[in-house]
Amino acid sequence: MGNGKFGGHFCPGLYIFFYGLYQATVVSKAMIVNDSPIYLSYLPKNQKRCSKLWRICFGGWLKIVTGSLLTYYVVFCLDNEMVLINKEMPPRFMYPQEWQHLTIFILLTLDGCVEVMSKNVPRQRWVVLERGSTALAFYVLLLLLVSHVQVSSKMELQVHSLLILVVFLLMLVLTAELWACGSFCLQLIKTFLFLMMGTWLMQAAFILFRPVSGYPWEDDDISDIMFVTTFFCWHVMINALCLVGVYGFSSFWHCYYSPSLRLGASKRVLYHESSSGTFYQLLQDADDQALLPSKSSPCDRA
Hints:
Number of helices: 10
Strand content: under 5%
Largest sheet: none
Shape: globular
Radius of gyration: 23 Å
Number of strands: 0
């Protein structure tokens, strides 16, 4: 069971970390070009179908595939068959923690299904539905984590309590995004919390199941308990530096290798040099007609 519990923490943490890195690049690019971090609701009609599915459904399909693989892993990583209730008298529920992991991974899969349907079934993307689904998944995740630590040792309780703190803050940010969908501040905080959740889950897997030293952490050693919090603070600093590094690299890349950014900078110069801004408005209108299939509010753009 040790291998199963290790994978149940490390694999989701690795996925969430890379998802956070992806979000960091998206938000960094949006901040650099001074545009909304929410994309267009759909592509032009002449776009090929395969390319459309790749560009629009990538995030949703990634959630579906990852959630399905993790669900398969939880079900078949047990030495015995994963059952809900045993056949003894009186009957008892079996594998409570594994069933909680399974519930979390199923929620991830369903969240991906909602995103794929929102981006492809209706004509205009349902951003509020997508974000509501993600927020609901984190509400359930928080409830499961609170009960998850009831049978934990002191070390597990300390590790999971810090994880609960990150999930709680992330839940608040996702809830706030339902009303403030284009806020850069919320996007940055959410990205940072995703990075924190991912790296801390991976760290928790090594602390609880595969210590680097080869010796298990002691519940009765107060120094071990204190160093868990110290490591968490190190994760805060490292992930903050990671976010700054992604922004710096994105800024360098778009300044020297992105023609669209230089064109946008030229437009801003023309706008400031013009007293009425008419020429800048003409350029902007021409780009809007060439790039946008329809006008939509910031909250409705994908």
